[in-house]
C-alpha cells in the first residue's frame, strides 16, 4: 500500500525515499569479495561493471568511451553533442572550461555551450566519432533525444552502433511534440539494434516503455547536486530509491505479462559513491549511470569539470558547468585519478568516491550475495522517518 501524507486540505502526496534514506541489511551469510560477480548483460552485450556513462560531452568523447569500455563499462556518445557538431570538440570544451573558471556564476560557460550547440550536426563528424569507438572493439552506444530520434537514428545505425539510447529528461512511450509523434513501439520495432530508453520516474511509465520493446529503461534524469538544476527550473524531482523500486516492480509485471522477457533497469541520478551504487542495485537496478563521479578521471574530456547534457538546452538550460565533487587526492589540488582507479581502485580515500566497483563488490560480499540479480533481493531498511 502506498504511504500517502496530507500536504494540505484535500491534497495528498506519496511519501518517497531517496537512495540516501535506504540502508542495506547484511544477512547471516557473508562471502569473499573474490567470489562476487558484478557482470551484467543487455541483449548480446556483456559488461564486467554495471556502469554506464551519462551522455554528456564532459564524459562522452570517443576516447573516453573506449577507455570506459576497456574498464568493463559502457561509454555513451551524444549524437547531438560537440563531437557531432565541431571538427575540434576538445578545443571547444577548453573554451567552456576557461569561462567556467573565470565566471563563478556559470552564466558565461552555459552561454558558450548554447552557442556551440547551435552549429548543425554534421553526419561526417558524427560518423567519424562512432567509427573511432567501434574500431576500438568496445560496445558502441549512442544517445539521441526523443525529439530528434527519427532524424538521427538512420545515421547512427548506418555508422555501426551496437546500442541506441533514446534519452531525455523525462520520456514517455509516445512523444507528441513536433509535426509527427514519435511512437516508440513502432519506432523500436523497425530497428535492428537494441534500444535503451529513459528517463522515467514511476511504475506506469516504466511499464509503458517496456511494452515498446525497449531492452532497457533508464530511471531518473541524471540529477547531480551542484550541476543539475531540473528541480529548480521545472519543479520535477525524482526520489531515486522509490523510483528504482517502482521500475523494478514494473519489470516483474512485464516479465509475467510476456512470459519471460526481461527488461533492464538502469538508474540515473543522485549516485555519487560506491555506497550509492550498491543501494541502487539493491533497490532493483541492473546498472547505474555515472556522470560527475567519473568526470574527475584523467581521461575525461571535461578535465575534472562536469555538466549534464541538458545544460546546453537553447532556451531553458537545466544544468551548470561545475567542478567534480571528488576532493584533492594529495598535495597537488589539481591531481586527478585515472578512470581505472575510480572504478577499480586501489584507493586511500574513505568516502566511496574511488574504487566504486570494488565498493559494490564488497557490499555484495558482506550481504552474502554472489551476483547482481541475487543482490536485488537483499533486505533493506529506511532511516530518517
Description:
The chain has 385 residues and is of the alpha/beta class. The chain has one domain: TIM Barrel (Alpha-Beta Barrel). Helices cover 34% and strands 18% of the residues. It is built from 14 helices and 18 strands. It has helices at 62-70, 89-102, 107-116, 123-135, 149-158, 184-189, 203-210, 230-234, 240-258, 274-283, 292-295, 339-344, 356-367, 372-375, and strands at residues 4-8, 11-14, 22-25, 40-42, 45-47, 51-53, 76-78, 141-144, 163-167, 174-175, 182-183, 195-200, 216-223, 264-269, 287-290, 305-306, 322-323, 379-382. The chain has an eight-stranded parallel sheet with strand order 6-15-14-13-12-9-8-7. Strands 1-2 form a two-stranded antiparallel ribbon. A two-stranded antiparallel ribbon has the order 3-18. Strand 1 (4-8) and strand 2 (11-14) form a beta hairpin. Helix 1 (62-70) runs parallel beside helix 4 (123-135) and helix 2 (89-102) packs antiparallel against helix 3 (107-116). The longest helix has 19 residues, at 240-258. The two termini are 17 Å apart. The model has no long low-confidence stretch (mean pLDDT 91).
Helix/strand layout:
Blueprint: E1 4-8, E2 11-14, E3 22-25, E4 40-42, E5 45-47, E6 51-53, H1 62-70, E7 76-78, H2 89-102, H3 107-116, H4 123-135, E8 141-144, H5 149-158, E9 163-167, E10 174-175, E11 182-183, H6 184-189, E12 195-200, H7 203-210, E13 216-223, H8 230-234, H9 240-258, E14 264-269, H10 274-283, E15 287-290, H11 292-295, E16 305-306, E17 322-323, H12 339-344, H13 356-367, H14 372-375, E18 379-382
Parallel strand pairs: 6-15, 7-8, 8-9, 9-12, 12-13, 13-14, 14-15
Antiparallel strand pairs: 1-2, 3-18, 4-5, 10-11, 16-17
Helix pairs in contact: 1-4, 2-3, 7-9, 10-13
